[in-house]
Automatic annotation (TrEMBL):
PANTHER family: GLYCOSYL HYDROLASE (PTHR10353), LP05116P (PTHR10353:SF36). It is an enzyme of class 3 (hydrolase). This is beta-glucosidase. Its EC number is 3.2.1.21. The keyword Hydrolase applies. GO terms for biological process: carbohydrate catabolic process. InterPro entries: GH, GH_1_N_CS, Glyco_hydro_1, Glyco_hydro_1_AS. PROSITE patterns: GLYCOSYL_HYDROL_F1_1 (PS00572), GLYCOSYL_HYDROL_F1_2 (PS00653). Pfam families: Glyco_hydro_1. The active site is at E364. The keyword Thylakoid does not apply.
Length: 474
């Protein structure tokens, strides 16, 4: 059996900076953040120039894989599809650096930075973006496929479309259910088109998708709750994972959506294409589960806390006529309202393995904290505890026979956290933004190294008792 991958994950916009270098064209995030006067990733942690140091530190920290994304605006210059050789050269250097340190690259083709020239033509609301995406992906396969053997089409299409088109806190900043459904559909279609292109090219590697995984739990075992759980599973998980892994949009989801949305963009030939071109593996980004109860009252409300402790406790999700999220009082939460619930990862992996029976990588897991990058050695024991509990969950699932092949911490070094800016820190290595972006390993960096070197044996193990809560109707 191949070696388990222990790595770190990043995304181009969140770490690279160099936003006007190497002939990179503007992205949707550049435009949106600049126009709204928000903290941006123009410089981020300057990975564009410091990737060698960052990858070397990953290697010295025991890591054997690096999950990163390619910036579409660095690779394809215009609507015609012209390739920017400077962008290709940058990723060639980055990939070669990984290989020189025996670090396996896992590449995300799209982690949310869309060229602005496509956003100007309605971005993911326009079917033509699927073709543009497939062309871009093929260029990546052709140029990097000799060395990259693990690809994922999209990072978190669900989180991206909900944030950009329903909640409205990411570009393009809309709040429109029809648009959410259209954009989601086109992203999943583009994913299948790209899986098809990958297979047709006979590349020597595997291709998957990365999902923002929120295993659904119910407040009780009543039938009403079980039905609400099914709606919630469709809302959070099934319309990505069922489509990517089984080639099917859940019928009851289509039925429900057809009451309120125009689904005429879903052509029979698309559905056939989706059915035939499913992924080789599943990437799960796990931050928290979601506990729900049946819908009671109120309009659809989706509030995300992007302000941390200033707005702690304000997050809320109600989907009218479907379900309401409940925040258990006895649980612990981060300053940004994310519930800390490691067991959800264990249970989620088991459900996923049982349902899809495809290899699983935990492509992101980590905790955002307030930290002072100027400190010489950050004592991030809270992160260490968080990681111990989550890796324990992964190992428990693995020991029960689930085919988990890797774990990637978000993130190997501090980076820009979308609407939360740089004050929300995730890294195992601190970036001192006030002092020339100096890199300083935190305690968790050494701790993770020990975990990897011991092949997980240094993890404090906690077995789980038999599951005693809810179930999902599939
Ligand atoms: C995932 C994304 O949703 O969560 C990352 O793939 C993101 O890009 C990470 O940074 C943490 O979320 P946030 O909003 O706290 O940065």
């Amino acid at each position: 059996m191949k070696e388990f991958l222990w790595g770190g994950a990043t995304a181009s916009y969140q770490c690279e900076g160099g936003f006007q270098e190497g002939n990179r064209v503007p992205s949707n995030w550049d435009r949106y953040l600049h126009e709204n006067g928000l903290e941006n990733g123009d410089v981020a942690c300057d990975h564009y120039h410091r990737y060698e140091e960052d990858i070397r530190m990953m290697k010295e920290g025991g890591q054997n894989s690096y999950r990163f994304s390619i910036a579409w605006p660095r690779i394809i210059s215009n609507r015609k599809g012209d390739v920017n050789e400077e962008g290709v050269a940058f990723y060639n250097r980055l990939i070669d650096t990984c290989l020189s340190y025996e670090i396996v690259p896992m590449v995300t083709i799209f982690h949310w930075d869309l060229p602005q020239y496509l956003e100007d033509e309605s971005g993911w609301l326009n079917r033509k973006t699927c073709e543009a995406y497939t062309h871009y992906a093929k260029v990546c396969f052709e140029r990097f496929g000799d060395r990259v053997k693990l690809w994922t089409t999209f990072n978190e299409p669900r989180y991206y479309t909900f944030s950009g088109y329903l909640i409205g806190n990411y570009p393009p900043g809309h709040q429109n259910l029809q648009e959410t459904v259209t954009a989601s559909y086109y992203m999943m279609l583009a994913s299948a088109m790209t899986v098809k292109a990958y297979r047709e090219g006979s590349y020597d590697g595997k291709i998957g998708i990365v999902h923002s995984f929120s295993p659904v739990y119910g407040v009780d075992m009543t039938v009403k709750t079980q039905i609400a759980m099914r709606y919630a599973e469709n809302f959070y998980n099934n319309w990505i994972l069922d489509v990517a892994a089984m080639g099917q949009i859940p019928g009851d989801l289509l039925d429900k959506l057809s009451d309120c949305c125009d689904l005429s963009m879903m052509l029979p030939e698309d559905l056939e294409l989706m059915q035939r071109h499913t992924v080789d593996f599943i990437g799960l980004n796990y931050y928290a589960r979601v506990m729900i109860k049946p819908y009671e009252t109120g309009e659809t409300t989706l509030i995300v806390n992007n302000k941390g402790s200033k707005e702690k406790g304000t997050s809320q999700t109600i989907v009218k006529d479907w379900f309401e999220q409940v925040r258990p009082k006895e649980s612990r939460y981060t300053e940004w309202d994310t519930e800390i619930f490691p067991r959800g990862l264990y249970e989620g992996i088991r459900r996923c393995w049982k349902k899809y029976h495809l290899p699983i990588y935990i492509t992101e897991n980590g905790i955002g904290l307030y930290e002072d990058g100027a400190e010489e050695k950050i004592d991030d024991r809270e992160r260490i505890e968080f990681m111990n509990q989550h890796i324990n969950a992964v190992l428990n699932a693995k020991e029960e026979g689930c085919d988990v092949r890797g774990f990637y911490v978000w993130s190997p070094f501090d980076l820009y956290s979308w609407k939360n800016g740089t004050e929300k820190r995730y890294g195992l290595v601190a970036v001192d933004y006030e002092n020339g972006l100096a890199r300083k390993p935190k305690k968790s960096y050494e701790w993770y190294k020990e975990v990897i070197e011991s092949k997980g044996n240094s993890i404090r193990r906690e077995p789980y008792e038999e599951v005693s809560y809810g179930f999902t109707i599939n």
